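User: Could you check the structure of this?
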Amino acid sequence: MKKWVIISVIVVAVGGGSGWFIYSKSQANQAQNVMATAQTITAQKGKLEVAVTGSGSVTANTDEDVTAANTILVVDSVSVSSGESVNKGDTLVTFKNGDVIMAPKDGEITKVYVSSGSGASQGKVLMRMEDEDGVTLPITREDGGSSSNNSSTGNTGGSSLVADTVYVKEGSVVKAGETIVKFTDGSILQAPVAGTITSLAVNSGDSVQSSATVAHITNYSSLETTISVDELDITKVKVGQSVKITASAFEGETFDGIVTKVANEGTSTNGVSTFDVTVKIKNPKGLKIGMSTEASILIQSKADALYVPVEAVYKNGDEKYVLVPSSTDDSGESTKKVTVKTGITNDTNVEITSGLTEGESVEIPSVQSRGNSSQGGFMMQGGNFPGGGFQGGGFSGGGNFGGRTTERNQTGGGQGGK
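Assistant: Sure, the predicted structure tokens are below.
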């Protein structure tokens, strides 16, 4: 009985060892086959674009208060011209409400800025004169005013005005320069910009303090979006660059835009600075204020660039190269290293300026063993690659919507793989 037990143990041990050896060898062969798996793709020619992206929300680029301090008097007539001598008390300007501006001193009129029909806001320089001592004086709406209205209305420069007629209501759409309110002293308040009256705080007969907000105007047909761009990309962004904008509320639709402002100062968060970039939306159509947007600012574009996927290019020191399939003497498949030079790049494709021709096949890794570069990335020994470049052993172009470089590619045909 003991003998049979010993024999059974030996048989089990030998069988188990043999099975483990066969299994391990099989797994090793499978691993070797998986590690050797590679995909072949051809160098393509087409439009290669590099863009900086960011996210934001829709805002109105015209959104402002209108205060009573913006009232104007309309000029009825100007009694003098440049080069004319005047005496103290001479009439210089007469407004349509009867107010008169008179010369404060003897002197000569050196410049006239207004004419009949002009609007004169508080503090606006109407003309300039030089007195007998050679001192140049500005003549404003508040200087030398005289009319029968002044004593009853507290008129120009006074602490309050009385509304005579209000020409708009909330929701009214106004043009720039359109009269909103007329006051009893004859002064008027005009819309400084075009837009919609979103709030109105005055009625006929109301007394209005000169600093009070009378109305608020928002232009819903002139919209913009402001995105945050990373400090590594902000130097590439310039006023006037074209922008493609998408909105979550309009899936599959793209809006055109243009960069109108690039912030000179950034905001630092956790040691990383971002800068605001303002983009005017050319045709906002159904966009509404507050909608979330994603914007792609076109930085570089080449219409006929030769390019390959970024993972096809490897780096060893200063050398960049690709692996080109070749056949050995025994008809086995192999690859050869071909040194290349690169141009513009985004986080999907890299331009090849020398070393390859259109249609030539290159190898890209589909699975890589541990210890090599990250899957699908540039292999490298260190250093950086301009334009979104090589980082840490994998290619990084940053394509998130926080201001990092991304891409839009338009080619004449798809990239073939086998």
